[in-house]
Amino acid sequence: MDTILHALLICIHRAMMRRRWIVTCISVLPTREFSFTVLQLYSEACGLPLYRREIRGRPIKTGIFYEEENNDEVEDLYELLAFIKQKHPDIEAVSSGAILSSYQKNRIQNVCRRLNLEPLTYLWNADQAVLFDEIISSGIEAIIVKVAALGLSTRHLGKSLREMKNLLLDLSSRYGVHICGEGGEYETFVVNCPFFTKRIVVDETKIVEHSVNDFAAVAYLSLSKLHLENK
Asked: Which GO terms describe its biological process (predicted)?
């Protein structure tokens, strides 16, 4: 399944609002078999070069804090960013969409420190209800492509975040569901946002169910066919 988290794009949007110029997109992927189609569409939609690297390492250092360790998966991110810095020596910072994960944030900070780059975490500890509203009001259009939480089911796949707002607020109030999906409750696919020069159109989809029960279904929307459209 190919997804991109809406939080990362709002983070990039905030960076642009602060006159931070975005020069590239990166992706570190777990397998050679991963489909690059969607990632390439994002690169074309943004008008930015895409750099990607297969994850060859594994999670050796699994504590909250991270120190350099050969063959750890974090070193794949380090190698990719080091390569990009050689290609773009004027790069000064790395923007990430971390909201609550100290595990993720600390690893990004470690890599940035070693490469003399500034880690930008504009969304860190943000109020998720406020952030959710900002995502919608900023013009980011995202659809639900995976559900894995109490109160969510296959009927919600393909719906926009705007359509899902009231339900997610209700689930957050009742069961503590993270409204921005930070707990893995759902994943999104962004089809349009302010800095896209083209929008992504979803032509064909297929629902794939991992598990179905009375409490919390786990299912995702396979994006079978996509194309770009001028805005």
From this structure: protein histidyl modification to diphthamide
